[in-house]
Design brief:
elongated
Length: about 120
């Protein structure tokens, strides 16, 4: 589905941009606040799931359970927003309460991978 290819491409662009911004422009601030590792975790998960969105776009052509595949794509996208997004904002602002949102993003990632597993199991090819 074109939408997931677009979402994956935009998110891949964002993870490169945010990773570079964090490594260069924000490095001192993140190190001083003790959030460099948190920011790096956000970038890592962002990258993996941006690529997962691109894989979802490709798999919609090959797997018969497209509803499950689309559900996986949406779960990955929501996971990026909740998991990586909360960690990015927490790293920059120091607002630790945002860490309560992060596990919801992790759950969304797990749901996405589980949906892809079920879609693959349901595929007759």
């Amino acid at each position: 589905m074109k939408l997931f290819l677009l979402l994956g491409s935009v998110n891949a662009f964002l993870f490169v941009a945010l990773g570079a911004f964090g490594a260069h422009a924000l490095k001192d601030k993140l190190e001083q606040g003790g959030y460099l590792k948190t920011f790096e975790t956000a970038v890592q998960y962002h990258m993996i799931h941006a690529l997962a969105l691109i894989v979802v776009a490709i798999l919609t052509k090959y797997l018969s359970s497209t509803g499950l595949v689309h559900g996986a794509g949406w779960a990955f996208f929501i996971g990026i927003i909740l998991f990586s997004g909360s960690l990015y904002v927490m790293s920059v602002t120091g607002i630790k309460v945002l860490g309560a949102i992060t596990p919801l993003g992790g759950i969304a990632f797990l749901v996405g991978w589980a949906l892809l597993f079920v879609a693959a199991m349901n595929h007759s090819g």
